[in-house]
Design goal:
CATH class of the largest domain: Alpha Beta
Number of strands: 10
Number of helices: 7
Structural class: alpha/beta
Largest sheet: 5 strands, parallel
Strand content: 15-25%
Oligomer: single chain
CATH topology of the largest domain: Cobalt-precorrin-4 Transmethylase, domain 1
């Protein structure tokens, strides 16, 4: 029997680890770390550093193995099908890696950026793995990029008694601002979709890149005033690091 733990590790800051997450890391026989390839290998390095910090001085330590993460096939025109195929491919890699390094079962852990529940597909991939082999899954929550964003800017997520919608850049571009909600949190936006927002002078943006990490960048202001600055800073940061993770909150001004 495989005992699979999906461990939320926050946004790259070792101080964001919960005690439950640290105990879970120490309890594993094997920890698998995805490597997304050249330009993003420092993400694997951050996971390695978190493990080294947590396991320092431990009587015994899990085996840590990196695996190459499959790439989504851009030739598949349908976005949802492209993601489904990608998840199937990742589940196959998980199964092969687990069979190679933990053939008799045991405790295996995946370190999940942020929290496994929020715009992360690790649980869906684990469900695919469960169809292929006998396993039990445990999920350890982690600090999300949404929490890191609001903490960095010192702002509440919601207005009093008002709703908040968490969505993607793709949805903001394709469907526009959702009706009935004045506050949006935008994730997974590689296209800077805030540029599509109507009346930017009436919208406040709080933007963070590398939220919670040492190289965190924060910009806030009226969208009309700061969007060019965000575009410039974001492009430079991506060029310097080879990758970027950013998130932002949009709020209609009254």
């Amino acid at each position: 029997m495989l005992q699979l733990s999906l461990i939320g590790i926050g946004t790259g800051n070792p101080k964001h680890l919960t005690r439950e997450a640290m105990e879970a890391i120490c309890a594993q026989d094997l920890i698998l770390i995805p490597n997304k390839g050249a330009g993003k290998d420092d993400l694997a390095g951050l996971r390695q550093a978190i493990c080294a910090d947590v396991l320092a001085g431990a009587a015994s330590a899990p085996k840590i193995v990196e695996f190459d993460l499959p790439v989504r096939d851009p030739a598949t025109p349908d976005y949802r099908q492209r993601v489904e195929d990608w998840h199937d491919a990742i589940a196959e890699v998980w199964q092969a890696t687990l069979a190679a390094h933990l053939p008799k079962g045991g405790q295996a852990g995946f370190l999940v950026w942020g929290d496994p529940s929020l715009y992360d597909s690790t649980m869906r991939i684990a469900e695919r793995l469960g169809r292929r082999m006998e396993m039990q899954m445990r999920v350890i929550p982690g600090i999300t990029s949404v929490q890191a964003l609001t903490a960095a800017h010192g702002v509440p997520l919601n207005r009093i008694g008002a709703p908040v919608q968490i969505t993607t850049g793709r949805q903001l571009r394709d469907a526009g601002w959702p009706a009935g909600c004045d506050t949006l949190v935008i994730m997974l936006d590689g296209e800077c979709s805030f540029q599509s927002v109507d009346r930017p002078a009436q919208v406040m943006i709080h933007w963070s890149a590398y939220a919670g990490m040492e190289n965190e960048i924060n910009i806030a202001g009226r969208l009309s005033d700061v969007q060019d600055q965000i575009l410039s800073v974001r492009a430079r940061a991506r060029r310097d690091h080879g990758w970027i993770m950013d998130i932002y909150m949009l709020e209609r001004l009254r």
